[in-house]
Amino acid sequence: MTGQGETAVEARKDIESIQRFFENPQSGPFDGRAIAVFAHPDDATIACGAQLRRFEDLELIVVTDGAPPAVAHAVSKGFGSIEGYAQVRWDEMESALDLAGVPHDRLIGYGFEDGSACRRLLTIIDRLARDLAGADMVLTHCYEGGHTDHDAVAMAVHIACAAIEEARRPVIVEAPLYSLQAGLWTAQTFAAGGSGLTCWIRRAGRR
User: Fold this and answer.
1) How far is CA 20 from the centre of its chain?
2) How far is residue 207's CA from residue 203's CA, in Å, rounded to a whole number?
3) Which residues contact 190 (CB under 8 A, 6 or more apart)?
4) 27 within 8 A of 3, measured Cβ to Cβ
5) Start-to-end C-alpha separation, the chain
6) Which strands make up the sheet holding 107-112, listed edge to edge?
């Protein structure tokens, strides 16, 4: 049921119920197992924000360490090492998730280096197929022709879910981050030509 603030949402692979859950901020918590799969430490909070606190059973998988492998990049950001840069990004993510009420023991880091997801696709798919089996929902990137890590993770989630037996396959919920569309930098907009249901998240008190 949705529409009642005190009522938990029992989506259980009901796509339309999941759509209503996101569109109605007054609906109760999602009563199921949800897993968020994103490429970098900051992607989940950018894509989902305060929506993360609406899940009673949520795990977050971060595929890369968020640190490009060139030391010069870390130095340009004021860090003395790649490892130091990666640690700060992880710490910032944990601080953001504290505000959303996501415990640190629900975080899983695959540890691939930033920018490598498209080259490690088969390994990522194999691991996701094991980790996502039995979940009710997976939150992730959409494929938008933007960041290669984002698009690789989007593809990996779809292929991994297709490999999971139907009874244990989660519903995929995608969020756009940024891409070039018609030659313009475009944020939080799905690329043209996609398919599936689209829902707009409403803020509490808005219509």
Assistant:
1) 19
2) 8
3) 142, 144, 174, 176, 198
4) yes
5) 20
6) 107-112, 55-64, 30-38, 137-141, 171-175
Element holding 126 (H helix, E strand) = helix 121-132
Give every CB contact of residue 27 below 8 A, 6+ residues apart in sequence.
Answer: 2, 3, 4, 5, 7, 9, 20, 21
| pTM metric for this prediction | 0.86
Instruction: Return the beta strands (E) in 46-100 as ranges.
Output: 55-64
Residue 177 one-letter amino acid: L
Amino acid at the residue 195: S
The residues spanned by each domain of the chain are: 29-187
Instruction: Tell me the sheet residues that pair with 62.
Output: 38, 109
DSSP-derived pairing of the beta strands 178-181 and 184-187: antiparallel
Q: Residue 7 is encoded by which pair of tokens?
A: 């009522």
pLDDT digits (tens, 9 = 90+) for 144-201: 888 999 999 999 999 999 999 999 999 999 998 888 887 888 888 887 766 666 665 5
CATH of domain 29-187: 3.40.50.10320
What tokens does 88 get? Answer: 């700060």
Sequence-distant (6+) residues with CB within 8 A of 139 are 34, 35, 36, 37, 38, 44, 47, 48, 173, 174, 175
CB 66 within 8 A of CB 86: yes
Interatomic CA distance for residues 187 and 101, integer angstroms: 26
